[in-house]
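Reproducibility note. Readers wishing to regenerate the assembly model reported in the main text can use the exact inputs given here. Chain order matters: entities are listed in the order in which they were concatenated for prediction.
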Amino acid sequence: MADKLYDVVGIGNAIVDIIARADDGFLSKHDLAKGFMRLIDAEEANRLYEAMGPAVERSGGSAANTIAGLASFGAKCGFIGRVAADQFGGIFRHDIRSQGVAYETLPATDGAPTARCLILVTPDGERTMNTFLGASVGFTPQDLDYAMLHAAKIVYLEGYLFDKDEAKAAFRKAAREAKKAGAKVALSLSDAFCVDRHRADFQALVREGADIVFANEKEITTLYQVNSFAEAADAALQDCEMAVLTRSEAGSVIVGEGETVEIAAWPVPEVVDVTGAGDLYAAGFLFGLTHGAPLETCGRLGSFAAAEVISHIGARPETPLRKLAKEHGLIA
Amino acid sequence: MADKLYDVVGIGNAIVDIIARADDGFLSKHDLAKGFMRLIDAEEANRLYEAMGPAVERSGGSAANTIAGLASFGAKCGFIGRVAADQFGGIFRHDIRSQGVAYETLPATDGAPTARCLILVTPDGERTMNTFLGASVGFTPQDLDYAMLHAAKIVYLEGYLFDKDEAKAAFRKAAREAKKAGAKVALSLSDAFCVDRHRADFQALVREGADIVFANEKEITTLYQVNSFAEAADAALQDCEMAVLTRSEAGSVIVGEGETVEIAAWPVPEVVDVTGAGDLYAAGFLFGLTHGAPLETCGRLGSFAAAEVISHIGARPETPLRKLAKEHGLIA
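Running the prediction on these inputs yields the following structure tokens for the assembly.
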């Protein structure tokens, strides 16, 4: 698959992050569970925004962050995700394109505005996310760009988007198209609550559509309703080729290709904001995988990219990862 | 004037900053003069935005930054400035209000969108600003909030907005209303090019309307068409009570109340982005002035606030200035 145009094409939510600092008291007052993502409607988004402190806006979205990270490593990438024809949609399009990512999804000219995620960063670096999905969640199979899917080495699917029926149908269709063209399909489970709501459908998608699954400990044990990480990893390997399992500061484990590789977390002087840690881990890992690196190097690239993104506010890399990885001797 | 509701009410452009890193080659390629602000139209704003790298959005605007800085010190403030009824307008309103600033200017429901400033930050920390003034520049005397002006100890006018006839008329009216209610009027010259374009009108405004003038060396010498800083300071004192003159890393000079006070620049470990340095100097200075501090302390508070804002990306303080100033023993 060396002659494919794209290393990775991602499909996911197209979101603008609105990031503010908050203390634990603010979270309690607004009944927000620290460290989790929850979905909110337009009215609650407005209410919470009113109550929040001064904020900064940056493009986000889980798979979009991964793709931006891959592009920062120098990978050739595309992204598919739905915004509205409004100012936030313009920000999203600009930021992903200016990373060198192909992005051609047409903006919706009616309906809900572009998705936004109100992110509260507490002094411990934890991020509590409140997502109004707006235009993003209206994703349908018609939003798929087949030419882009056919031109990918890996198609990367964001679990957060696997929620509404039309979006689910789009994921299944995308997985079929990818396979038809000889691409691998990677799926990020994204969120334990989402997995819990759609367990059977997620299991079927992993079994029938995915070659590689990305998950954290909570997500993978929720998917297979088992108690231990080891049981979950075994179950995953029954369904797909490879599972890439992240464990925050305990590092990560990769099972697949007949081996189990454990990777330590990359040391970080100060954790400022953990938003995007999993997304950037996937970016580093997939950069390695699409460039012929052994699994251990893939995992180290993942840890490395996650470390960069948790060292500052926001879920997109601030330092070009290719240059940084070269300085650390991770890539030639 | 101890019983006034507001320490300072600002009038200025209501702008959302779009900030990206760029190298010197990018500036040359697009004919941008490093360190300057220039006005661009919608078409050029779109063209330049296309060419820029991934960006971050934050509220800005010169006087709005000053007012946000004052609020961060704990001052009671209001702001008057014009946005459109769009998403960027919503960001601007949220950010200034969430600082505790009163902001009641009605958004324009037709005409140009909310103003934006494309800011390119070079590796040396210099910022090159490209401003599309959009809705902001449509400011008229009808946008003035008299109750707010009458309730201020100081009304602070942003020179950048003193460009179109209607906005000029609004400034003159605001100055008259402020004086009627016993408020002082402060004017920031903002920009040497703007001063050059409207020299006679600026001179008249200083002479007839302003009690305090804020300027850098270039702006004050341009206003009086003199060669030296000393001559310019003398000329300013013929026209108003006090001139507060900033000189970047050479510190600042305050002339007024029969004395001349020189203030050293506050030391900064690393200059990351000079955007907002002058705005935050004014914030610190005016906080001191409205809280009875001697001129030297006012100047030190200005230098201190400027140092905070140039230590990070963006023109609004990231650390609450009241707390920080207490830690440094600047305020009780």
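We highlight two features of this model. Chain B has one domain: 6-13+61-110+135-327. The domain at 6-13+61-110+135-327 of chain B is CATH 3.40.1190.20 (UDP-N-acetylmuramoyl-L-alanine:D-glutamate ligase).
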